[in-house]
Amino acid sequence: MRGLIPLLNTVPTTGFAGTIARHLRAAVPGLNQNADAAASNTALPPGHPPHRPRVEFFNLAELTSTDCKGFVRQVERYHHEPWGVYMARIVPVPHRHYLECWLLPALSLRVTLTRRNPAHHVDHDFHLDIGEFTEIEPKHWKAVDHYLDIEVHRGHNVELLGVDELLAAHAAGLVDTTQAHRAFECATAALDGLAANDHCVEDWLATHGITLTWM
């Protein structure tokens, strides 16, 4: 988990940040030796300025998605299963050309697979966003991002990102402690499940009765 150990060394051992660090050390093998390193440091870890949780909307009837800035994009395909909603759309940027994702409410996850152009290869297979995904009315879904992300390197390891953003948002009062704890619990559950299934997203989700399909 690139960058996670230095981050844990900057968080305090008390309060919400300390709770985050304790859970991370328990969830990720090899971090316990760093448990005492944060005792004298009470500053929040560095990162982006605090921001509110990003909210997106998905209109299955009109085949659109609306991002956190209100920008409406055309969606090529939605597909609904008992465990969640699939979305696929073109991404008109140079380094990638297609995006597919599943919203999985029961696991508080969005699983994203990005089709990139050959010259812009990345070394991870899936990107997992922790958040709240709900059907607010028939064929209308809402996604609230909870800052934490997991990049999965199939068969090798995972990387947990966004801890600094979550801590900063909580300190700024943009998310309450209950919401932040929930985000963290969902992230650690995903880390545990992936570790138990050789860091394979499909194998882990199959233990929950979920089978993802892609274009």
Automatic annotation (TrEMBL):
InterPro entries: DUF402, FomD-like_sf. Residues 72-198 form the DUF402 domain. It comes from the Bacteria. This is DUF402 domain-containing protein. It comes from Nocardia suismassiliense. The lineage of its organism: Bacteria, Bacillati, Actinomycetota, Actinomycetes, Mycobacteriales.
